[in-house]
Amino acid sequence: MKKSLKIVFLLLFLATSFQVRAQKIGYIDSEYILNKHPDYKVIQDELLKLSQQWKKQAQDLDAEINDLFVQLKAEEVLLTEEMHKARLGEIQEKQKASQNFNSRIFGIDGEYYQKQAELLQPLQSKIYDAIEVVTRRNNIGMLFDKASVPTGLIYTNPIHDYSEFVLAELGIEENN
């Protein structure tokens, strides 16, 4: 009995000697923040113009291939077998060039995605810096992004939403 009483007092002493602090947790909506930022609209417009130019070039290549194929079909009766094979080879080369163009521009590591990353990187850095200031100012231990794909956030109480604080840190007013 005496031993168990000593253990209880020891545990009470240890429990009161350690300061237990709960971490503050919050979240932001990066998609909301990006859409409110005026620079994001400029970047989106620039990317849209670029993609439209590249899509036009791809469509022009496809139209050229289609025209060559129609022309080949129209002249097929007049061509020798060698001439037919040569024209068919030319069409296949153009098709391969078109595929390479599409892959180079719109592929996984294509110019479109490289340009997107290049344009968004400074804005993302600015937003990240603002997030860091807000988390330090509000003593937040963990901050989640509601817009990220596998968040696991099923419910979020708006009282813990720090998106407006980040927008204020970026100097963006609510009426934008």
UniProtKB/TrEMBL annotation:
Q: Which domain of life is it from?
A: Bacteria
Signal peptide (UniProt feature, chain positions): 1-22
Keywords associated with the record: Signal
Keyword Ribosomal protein listed? no
Q: List, alphabetically, the InterPro entries matched.
A: Chaperone_Skp, Skp_dom_sf
Pfam families under this entry?
OmpH
Could you say which protein family the record assigns here? Belongs to the Skp family.
- Quote the protein name from its UniProt record: OmpH family outer membrane protein
Organism this protein belongs to: Algoriphagus namhaensis
Q: Highest lineage ranks of the organism?
A: Bacteria, Pseudomonadati, Bacteroidota, Cytophagia, Cytophagales
